[in-house]
Amino acid sequence: MKSRYVVVTAAVVTLLSACGVIRGDDEGSKGAQTTGVTSEPCPSAVDRNKGCIYLGSISDLTAGPFAALAVPITEAQKAFWARVNKAGGIGGKYEVDVTKFVRDNKYNPEVHRQVYNEMKDQVLGLAQTLGSPTTAAIIGDLKAASIVAAPASWTSAWEFEDVIVETGSNYCVEAMNSVDYAMEAYKPKSVMAVHLAGDYGADAAAGAKIAAEKNGLTFTAVETPSGATEQGRAITEITKNKPDLVILTTGPADAATIVGQAAAAGYKGRFIGTGPTWNPALLKSPAAPALKALYEQSAPGKSWDADTPGHQAMREALSGVTPNDGYTSGWAWAYPLKAALDKMVAGGDISRKGLLAAVKTLKTVDYEGMLPPEAGNYADDPNTATFRQTLINKVDDKAPTGVTMVKDFFVGPTAQGYTLDGPCFAKL
């Protein structure tokens, strides 16, 4: 724990900074303490001669619809940064702490904002901010304070925010690729997007709409609330209209209810759910037979058991856990922030502005094979930088996370030719 002296010093530095006596750039160049960075070691330091960079994490850890994914995401990121620290930390000068400032947002934007405000003056950036609508609740402050954040979400809005270091294709592109994949695999004539409200669901629905129109298919969108017991209208719309393809963008429990009950009512079309609709626990649910028969998962990256150095490092760091692709996503999401921290320290400007400047220079990121290097382009304009490759998985109860790959990284013609000139959800 910090000494009383350091706490007082931090308060004085904050006050002087606010008065314009000390600038962030000066703090960085002198290597002195700045917001979220101390010359003292991290609480669980590997090398107590190194300083500490504190990163916050805000996730859905208990009551929200994505807790089954969010808990593994958060644990994977703790393991990722522990590995970084064991390997020498950042620039040989700092280790990274992602354990002191971990808070639960319950997937509620108001709660997200509240816990963010509680930690923002004590962290350099955010190792995780889970959820599209929840992160949208703090994006204005992130920008105003130059706070870099790694999102646990894939909305296309992040392509237009310099402070956000997103990883993998956005929901809009993912849904475009799903429709194009279905055109080859199933020859649908009609598409329905069943989606949660907000940036998450609407972004995927917009991508499905764009791809449906591109392919000459009829399209309808059905917004549905979160909650397994709240899916009656969505199920009715599916069974009444009988679309050939349903693009699902919900939580896992919602998806299981929709697929299971639609199938029980006689629906025989296909479902493709965006990445967060799946959780391996669904294989133990009453919907398992319907999911095996009718559902596929689109995904922004390869699953737990993929043969890449990054996946292998993740499995070694998390040995003994029950496989879950929350771990996979959490681990992959940490690479861009590490790359930016490395550049920040190498450049000598240890500050929020220094970290943001480092982000803006990144055209590639070494994901250790988990994603192609060009997935980490934060330097070019949004349309150029947007990563457009996704995968398709099928349900497989013999696979570690319940899914195996059907189609490797690909870009469909819709996403390939689409000009991203603004967040997709604005066009739904």
Supply database-style keywords.
single chain, 428 residues, seven-stranded mixed β-sheet, six-stranded mixed β-sheet, 17 helices, 13 strands, disordered N terminus
Reported for the largest beta sheet, the result is:
7 strands, mixed
Name the strands of the widest sheet in spatial order: 8-7-9-10-11-12-13
Shape: globular
The low-pLDDT segments are: 1-32
How large is the count of helical segments? 17
Order of SSEs: HHEEHEEHEHHEHEHEHEHEHEHHHHHEEH
User: What oligomeric state do these chains adopt?
Assistant: single chain
Specify the structural class. alpha/beta
What proportion strand? 15-25%
Q: Could you estimate the helical fraction of the residues in percent?
A: 40-55%
Task: Give a description of the structure.
Helix 3 (67-86) crosses helix 13, helix 9 (232-241) crosses helix 10 (252-264) and helix 14 (335-347) packs across helix 15. Helix 11 links the parallel strand 10 (270-273) and strand 11. Helices cover 41% and strands 16% of the residues. It has helices spanning 4-18, 24-30, 67-86, 109-119, 132-136, 139-144, 171-185, 198-214, 232-241, 252-264, 288-294, 309-317, 325-333, 335-347, 352-359, 382-385, 413-417, and strands at residues 37-38, 51-59, 94-97, 102-104, 125-130, 149-152, 190-195, 218-223, 245-249, 270-273, 295-299, 390-395, 403-410. It has 428 residues and is of the alpha/beta class.
Short overview:
This protein is of the alpha/beta class and 428 residues long. It has 17 helices and 13 strands. Helix 8 (198-214) links the parallel strand 7 (190-195) and strand 8 (218-223).
